[in-house]
Amino acid sequence: MEEKLNILLSKTSDYLTLFLVFSMPLLENKLSKLIVFWVVIMSVQKLLSLKYKFDFNLQRALLPLLYILYILGIIWSGNKHAGFFAVEVKASFLVFPIVIAAYSQYFKENQIKILMSFILGCFVSSIICLSVAFYQSTSLTPDGLVFNTIDHRYASWDFGGSHFRFIALSLFLHPTYFSSYLLFAIASCVEILRRRIFSNLNLNGFLWISALLFLIMIYLLSSKALIICTIAVVIGYAFIFFNHAHNRLTKISIVVVAGFVTLIGFQNPRFKAVCELIANPEIILGDDGDGTIVSRIHIWKSGMELIGTNFFLGVGPGDTNNELVKKYQLHGYKDPFRVNSNAHNQFLETFIDLGLVGFLLLVVILIYSLYKSVASKNNLFFIFLCICSFNFLSESMLNVREGVVFFCFFYCFLGVLDIRELEEKSDLKSVVT
Q1: What confidence tens digit (pLDDT) does each residue in 309-319 have?
Q2: Are 89 and 404 in contact, with CB atoms under 8 Å apart?
Q3: Where are the domains of the chain?
Q4: C-beta separation of 183 from 387 below 8 A
Q5: Which of 51, 158, 196, 269 is the most buried (most CB within 10 A)?
Q6: Maximum average pLDDT range among 142-146, 203-207, 266-270
Q7: Buried b / exposed e across 88-117, counting CB within 10 Å, b at 16+?
Q8: Where are the alpha helices (DSSP H) in 137-247?
Q9: Phi then psi dihedrals of residue 291, to 5 deg
């Protein structure tokens, strides 16, 4: 009876893990409940198996350490309620390192299944978003069926107000976070393909189609930061493939494709604001932001002022937003004040939250992991860290569940992954421990 229960729990844990990863691009608001259920099942299985080994290395220990700092930060936060909420949102800092450390062998043996589940989730999410945009763009009139992509609610925005652009297209996540997911999914597709994991032509075809779909989606989602990041990843892979190409035609094709992707990327309408700022840098001195770049600069100025007066301990995770809003009001920054904006930079946000120690710990987490990924030649982990680090420059990624779950899960998962071990293996194996 006990053996049958262990087998049932093992299968349930396996399916739940795959469903959790699949659901990340689809169920942002429901993920918390799913994660709690997943943790309960994994914990019960661990207790019944009587196998209490934990593969808890320094890399995975750093996240819980940062989480402990956030808990301590509540002590000097004036707004305790907001402080506890911030700690609740960041519970993934503690949950994923412990669970993945407890099941490191399972994650090693099922790494391709997990990556494929995430790719499939991104694929399904993309298809749903495009289908809804197409449906919303279609209307039946007395003159017949009319196709009009313009969404008048967003017509004044710099991305054109289309159902196929930016926030109108992204149904499940903020466009920047969804673009981050998609870019990581592209890197996963490329790594699986270049390592020749599958001999099945249909699976390889699905990966090529998915990568192309995700590139198109990133362009349509129009996150400036992620378009730049995507171009960097494409150029990086082009360099790798160029060096391994054996004939001139292949090399020319690689250069042409990389150049075409780069050119198309910078043709995105939302880059007009960047070009305008470069041409007229005095815009930064104004009080009225455009909702994007200039507002971000005003926000960062306010954040730097807070750091200057709360250098060592920060203001506490419960007071960061309130203190920033006071600065916006003081300086007359209308856009950030209107939306109660966070710091829109994870490095600044952590520094304001926890002071110098918290900031340094976040930097150590990234630098140490980047070093480990390079030392182990773990390309996928390296690309993931670059995506997140770049995203940290323009978003407070660890302040929202869609960011913190994505970062913490794959940070811990990719730390045990070694995709090179699976080269030339062509079938997905369900290994349950």
Answers
A1: 999 999 999 99
A2: yes
A3: 2-135+157-278+342-422
A4: yes
A5: 158
A6: 203-207
A7: ebbbbbbbbbbbbbbbbebbbbbbbbbbbb
A8: 166-169, 175-194, 201-221, 224-244
A9: 90, -5
